[in-house]
């Protein structure tokens, strides 16, 4: 049976979309773990297409720890992030506002469930397009040192602004929200959004990293 041009075009398009999705780094996970309740999200956005800048000579190894003793309650945390990425929560009816979520973890790890996925699901159920950021940690040897998490936050908001149409969001309605150490990162982004923490790599880096709103929840105020 012959294949007409339309079918061939659609097949090529589907293959391209599938390839692009497959190229993204998966969300943090414990191998073989079955998460109770709702399934984990699957859609992600890698921030740095050619790898995160300033890779240490001895790169950290991404490790996810399950801290919960309750088989019905997930409470994971990740450290050693080498592929900073956003995990996407799409609402059924987007209201045009994006919320970039920075979970806490004392800059020793990044919480996955309590201040990440649970918040993403709650916001998506109310029409917000939510993006949970798994950022690099300052104590793991990256070239940007104490600014490495800020580099990821700046890059994240610029990437989202550059792809606003793809996610049904408005580039002038980008809110940052952070918890604990993530609250500190959120405040850092809100006040130092234009600090030069990394060298520009593409057109997205010409866009502003300034959030249009910021929510700091029980935020760390001082490193002393």
Low-confidence stretches: 1-22
Please give the order of strands in the largest beta sheet: 1-4-7-5-8-9
String of helices and strands: HEEEEEEHEHHEHE
Silhouette: globular
Task: Please summarize the sheet with the most strands.
Answer: 6 strands, mixed
Distance between the termini: 72 Å
What is the class in the CATH system?
Alpha Beta
Number of helices: 5
CATH domain topology: Rossmann fold
Q: Percent helix among the residues? A: 25-40%
Range of strand content? 15-25%
Please tell me the CATH architecture by its name: 3-Layer(aba) Sandwich
Number of domains: 1
Look at the helices and sheets and give the structural class.
Answer: alpha/beta
Mean pLDDT: 89
Compute the gyration radius: what is it? 18 Å
Number of strands: 9
Features:
224 residues, disordered N terminus, 27% helix, alpha/beta, single chain
Topology:
Layout: H1 5-23, E1 44-46, E2 63-66, E3 76-79, E4 85-89, E5 98-102, E6 110-111, H2 113-124, E7 129-134, H3 148-162, H4 164-167, E8 174-179, H5 181-191, E9 213-217
Parallel strand pairs: 5-7, 5-8, 8-9
Antiparallel strand pairs: 1-4, 2-3, 3-6, 4-7
Helix pairs in contact: 3-5
């Amino acid at each position: 049976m012959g294949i007409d041009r339309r079918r061939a075009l659609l097949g090529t398009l589907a293959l391209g979309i599938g390839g692009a999705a497959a190229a993204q780094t998966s969300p943090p996970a414990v191998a073989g773990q079955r998460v109770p309740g709702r399934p984990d999200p699957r859609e992600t956005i890698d921030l740095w297409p050619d790898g995160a800048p300033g890779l240490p000579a001895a790169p950290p190894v991404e490790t996810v720890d399950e801290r919960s003793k309750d088989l019905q309650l997930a409470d994971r945390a990740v450290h050693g992030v080498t592929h900073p990425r956003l995990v996407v929560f799409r609402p059924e009816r987007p209201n045009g506002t994006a919320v970039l979520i920075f979970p806490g973890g004392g800059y020793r790890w990044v919480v996955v469930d309590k201040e990440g996925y649970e918040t993403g699901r709650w916001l998506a159920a109310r029409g917000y397009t939510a993006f949970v950021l798994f950022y690099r940690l300052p104590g793991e040897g990256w070239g940007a040192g104490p600014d490495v998490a800020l580099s990821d936050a700046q890059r994240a908001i610029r990437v989202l602004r550059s792809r606003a149409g793809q996610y049904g969001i408005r580039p002038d309605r980008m809110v940052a929200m952070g918890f604990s150490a993530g609250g500190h990162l959120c405040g850092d982004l809100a006040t130092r959004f234009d600090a030069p923490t990394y060298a520009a790599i593409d057109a997205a880096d010409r866009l502003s990293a300034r959030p249009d709103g910021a929510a700091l929840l029980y935020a760390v105020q001082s490193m002393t």
